Amino acid sequence: MRRIVVITLLLTLLSPSNTQAAPIDALAALNNLEVKGRAAKTGYARSQFPHWSDPDRNGCDARNDTLKRDLTNITYKVGTRDCKVIAGQLLDPFSGKVITFSTTKVVIDIDHVVALSNAWQTGAAYFDKNKRSQIANDPLNLLAVDSKLNRQKGDGDAATWLPPSKAFRCEYVARQVAVKAKYGLWVTQPEKVAIDKILSTCVGQKLPA
Length: 209
What we know:
Blueprint: H1 2-14, H2 26-31, H3 62-70, E1 71-76, E2 85-91, E3 98-102, E4 108-112, H4 116-121, H5 129-137, E5 142-146, H6 147-153, H7 169-183, H8 189-199
Antiparallel strand pairs: 1-2, 2-3, 4-5
Helix pairs in contact: 1-7
């Protein structure tokens, strides 16, 4: 019963409509996540998480919305109503380096902070496809990042991969906790230990809104 109450509170506070809510402590939120072993990957496919859709119905898909949010000096494709991003610059959170983006060379990916296969193995396999689509298109779970580092990460969790930029690690794991709390996903014991270790270096780290 206590866990249900805590998760309900987290979902309420993480709701975009609750703009007056106080930020939630990331370590406290981590300690309220269920801890279980990783489930089998049987049945997983990226097609189980439909993306890129337009969840906020602003006329732009979630990928381009993420590029618009995370890049600067943006150029849009003519005739797309400032939706299709074709150039810009990214201060890559994973490396701390500035990356120039264009459509002629793939140097930036949109990372799922909680990897889709990780989500599948920590609860999302039991969701319907609509809820899995929400995870795949949620701005909370999306970041524009260096494509090489994103592919290095693969489906890793905090126990197996962390951003090279140590300055970003607290924010990174706090975002993972926020996603898992929002969707009721669990963490594995090694994952929890790794996140706890990071958050112990940044006491007071809050969950992203």
